[in-house]
Amino acid sequence: MTDSNADRAAEVHPATDAHRAAEVPAAVEFMRSRLPWTPEVFGVLGSGLGFLADALEDPVSVPFAEIPGFPAAAVAGHQGRMVAGVLEGRKVLLQAGRFHVYEGHPLPVVVAPVRIAAALGAPIFLVTNAAGGINPDFGPGTLMLIQDHLNLMGRNPLIGPPSEGEPRFPDMSAAYDPGLRGLARATARDLGIALAEGVYAAVTGPSYETPAEVRMIGLLGGDAVGMSTVPEVITARVVGMRVLGISLITNPGAGISPAPLDHAEVLEAGREAAPRFEQLIRGVLSRLV
After folding, report:
1. Which DSSP state fits 65?
2. What is the pTM assigned to this prediction?
3. Which helix (H) or strand (E) holds 20?
């Protein structure tokens, strides 16, 4: 990057980031005015998985456009609303549609819903995504419990001055809560749902990975690859939320299958996996203590 380009970036992004960060308190107060209770679980629904928001009892739906600082959702398969309701007796707040780095959103926007949910009092973060399979044993339709992640985005949402009360160097040795992972395993076993487990690698996108990049991620220990999740998980941990992550493997990574990659394939895999995914989430929620 030339000096002039760096100067222009410095002029644009910090100002945008600061503006968005300043709107989080306003968004918290707005959401507090719309919610009838404190959420017990905050969930983000990945591509093709927004159907779970329609399963909530007594739903309160808030379009992104009404929330201070929220842009509209612009990716197919993302509804663009926050939905509060009850599922398996638990008070749940769901983000149906997420913001992505590849859309040009600064990281404070991408992770703002997590900060808002934490400020509203939600202690648990359920994060889901659609991902490409790196592990050859994980075919389309596989549900993968995330045990760890690789941040290959080249950026971190905690860069910059830390927020008041947050650790400067948060521990990430158990980013995905061991207790919640154990609960998900036991639930899947009891319900007869196949649940793989592996490492999620996050890249910025929006282009899909090349075959060489897929091979590299596999050598680094990645089992699945996607374009989200990691910034939100890092943020959830720094604000003290427990994290449970589940990936839906929608397609083999480039080079594993001879077929070209297509976003429509992602959405179709979400529809196929819907019954198993909903059954697993309901089972986990019903067993939370």
Report:
1. G
2. 0.88
3. helix 3-34
Q: What residues are annotated to the active site?
A: 47, 78, 100, 102-103, 130, 227-228, 251, 263
- pLDDT at residue 32 in the model: 97
Q: Which amino acid is at 78?
A: H
Instruction: Count Cα neighbours of 243 within 13 Å in the Cβ-side half-sphere.
Output: 28
What does the pLDDT read at residue 71? Answer: 86
Dist CA 27 CA 71 (whole Å):
12
Give the three-class secondary structure for 172: coil
Task: Render 89-157 in DSSP notation, one character per residue.
Answer: TEEEEEEES---GGGT--HHHHHHHHHHHHHHT--EEEEEEEEEE-STT--TT-EEEEEEEEE-SS--T
Nearest CA-CA partner of 37 in 80, 113, 93, 81: 93
Alpha-carbon radius of gyration of the chain = 18
Find, among 102, 76, 220, the residue nearest to 212 by Cα. Answer: 220
Residue of 106, 138, 127 lying closest to 46 (CA atoms): 127
Rounded to an integer, what is the distance from CA 120 to the centroid of its chain? 18
Is CATH 3.40.50.1580 the right assignment for the domain spanning 3-287?
A: yes
Question: Stretch 253-270: mean pLDDT, rounded?
Answer: 67
Mean pLDDT, the chain, whole residue set: 88
In whole angstroms, give the CA distance from residue 33 to residue 114. 18
pLDDT at 266: 65
What span, in angstroms and rounded, lies between the C-alpha atoms of 47 and 261? Answer: 15
Q: What percent of the chain has pLDDT over 90?
A: 73
Predicted confidence at residue 259, as pLDDT, reads: 64
Asked if omega into 206 is within 30° of 0 (cis), the reply is: yes
Q: Please tell me the distance from the alpha carbon of residue 191 to that of residue 288, in angstroms, as a whole number.
A: 16
